[in-house]
């Protein structure tokens, strides 16, 4: 029997034959959904070995190390109870945790909210950039939903759609896109000119295809304005929700795209690093979720001409949906992404 977990973090024991069956089921599910190739027999055998290793913490073979980018560590001190300021938290990530990059962020993790305090944010980002040695990103969510009522000026398409007002809902999203792109470009410009080495459009597509479109258009504008700017785009889900359903970028319909197609558009827009997301299935095993995630991310990496850093946080990328992430899960996901999915980073 092998110690493993369910997708919700519950500890279980499973026979090796059960683990193999779950790995096969997971890769077949991903392949069928995205119309991509399932993992090979060799890849599945490698995953089975990773899952079944006896150690609590596992690691990659020498030479297979990859770098890490992270989202919003500077605001992580609040929920984690550390009485330190944001710059000190970034220093902790650099000098204690040994992170490869750091990301500054605001407690209200939305570019719309940050626009109102952009000058203050730029000031401390500039200070942090002088103190840190590792590259410093500034990140937040495009958060298109914030532009709808009651939080924003645009009619709420989530209310219009159930009423059958499709045209009005689409028009509202298109209006929100213009406002969102303006804010993304403004805030990103402020932070980049203030010393941030990169910008993170995190959880892109959270409000559907219009949200993804806004992030792509903002990237396009920023790369023309600052050709050397590093832009990381992390997605919100494994496929793009069609809340608008008719939006196209570079002639490609955005609704329903899976990671291997998302990354192609991100690359065309000018994204430097792409972060695919694969959602977790809580009532399935860790093995099932791991195989699904690796299948999606391997296809994404194969299709990409830019670095791919899969999201491997709470509830995504094969990581269990539990607040305190088990190290046995996180380390196995990391090895699988590096050695089987062939990711460039995490």
Concise structural overview:
The protein has 346 residues and is α/β, with parallel strands linked by helices. The chain is built from twelve helices and nine strands.
Task: Please provide a written account of the structure.
This protein has 346 residues and is of the alpha/beta class. The chain folds into two domains: 101 residues, no CATH class; 205 residues, TIM Barrel. Helices cover 45% and strands 10% of the residues. The chain has twelve helices and nine strands. It has a five-stranded parallel sheet. Helix 1 crosses helix 11, helix 8 runs parallel beside helix 9 and helix 11 packs parallel to helix 12. The longest helix has 28 residues. The chain is globular. The protein starts with a strand and ends in a 7-residue tail after the last helix. 49% of the residues are buried. The model has no long low-confidence stretch (mean pLDDT 95).
Number of helices, where a helix is a run of at least 4 consecutive DSSP H or I residues: 12
Radius of gyration over C-alpha positions, nearest whole angstrom: 20 Å
Would you identify the CATH architecture of the largest domain?
Alpha-Beta Barrel
Shape: globular
- Termini gap: 30 Å
Give a count of the beta strands, DSSP E runs of length 2 or more.
9
Beta-sheet strand percentage? 5-15%
What is the CATH top level name of the largest domain? Alpha Beta
Along the chain, the helix and strand elements come as EEHHHHEHHEHHEHEEEHEHH
The total domain count is: 2
Instruction: Extract low-pLDDT stretches.
Output: none
Helical residues, percent: 40-55%
Mean pLDDT: 95
Structural class category: alpha/beta
CATH topology of the largest domain: TIM Barrel
GO molecular function: methyltransferase activity
Keywords: Methyltransferase, Transferase
InterPro entries: Dimeth_MeTrfase_MtbB
Protein name: Dimethylamine methyltransferase
